[in-house]
Model the fold of this input.
Amino acid sequence: MAQPTPFKPVQKSRRQIIQGAAAAVGAMSFAPGLMAQAAPVRVGYAMARTGPWTGGAQVSQEPNYLLWAEQQNAAGGLDVKGVKRKIELISSDDRSDTETVVRTYEKLMGSDKVDLVLPPWGSNANFAVAPLANRFGYPFLAPTALSKRLIEMKLPYFFLLLQQPAPMTNALVDMLKANGCKTLACIYVDDLFGLENFAALKVALQGSGIQMVEDKSYPGGVKDLSPVLRSIKDKNPDAFVGFTYPPDTILASKQAKEVGLNPKFFYASVGTAFQLYKNVMTPAGAEGVLGMGSWNSKTSPGAKAYFDAHTKKFGGKEPDRWASGAAWAGLEILTNAVKAQGLDRKAIRDYVANTTHKTILGDIKFQGSENIGTPGTVSQWQNGEFEVVWPPKLATAKLNPAKAAWK
Done:
């Protein structure tokens, strides 16, 4: 039997050894690059799933975050400067509590170091976290914050997508003046949202010829507005204006019907733009009611595609016709920023600040923190749709200048 050939180690030249080592080092350095490219984009946020903010948060905001992540992942992932990476949402219930909001975002940005953040719901929560955005250097595109004070703070990483109190109340007063309104009564929730909108309304009324015959603040979580509504009825104003949160908007509408308060113009927000409002009041009962709204499925082909996708995903639940559109527009802007700039947050901020953005709402452009591309608007329930009725150049339907009796 032939003897086995003894093993002889392969002799390599010094050049071969160096080349091999270099190749190994190259492979090792390349592998983490592949791993980084394949790693998910970690997107963090806090959202009200319990407590008084839930109604707004679960209509105007979180459903849009879920739909966005699903659509991006179905397309292979978020385009990060040419590389598709899946989105991983990291979220928790803020319990409608400002301190919880602050602690959660401090953790997300400070210790968790997520790649991106999405904002919480509402003016109060956003006011609380806006300074954190600047401190940690995370761009925030906030779709449910109304606050002149936030704009005046000049925080470069914080952007407000909604039309702010001044343009919204100016549009409302312009509409009322153009349609013969002479007297107005107002109620408003006693917090940042209500106080700022009421202050803006008083400024807008100056020189309009419209007299405010009564104004009354009320605490958050109010259970009965009938006494002030009866008082307003006795003064018989042409217009009622309520700066109200969704539960209060419905409460004010129901109790206005009960006490017989039915002015020519009945305006309440937020919440009027919700499908829930039409469902609770019935389409006939909601007919002619005015509120804060800026879009519907007629606004643009993109708005129609978004409306249909949202309604399909959530089993017939429609996006609201105001802040939901702003939420989606913000996600469109963020998506394009990441595509152009990757995950460099300073570069994303600069892109957002210095670009005119094409969105489902039209062109959006920021001056400091404020969206100056979207003008103030008024919408009205007509035949089951919340139509944009003012200003006329943006209208999806003509204003009905005399609300029908409650039904």
Remarks:
- The longest helix spans residues 14-38.
- Confidence is low (pLDDT under 50) at residues 1-31.
- The chain has 15 helices and 18 strands.
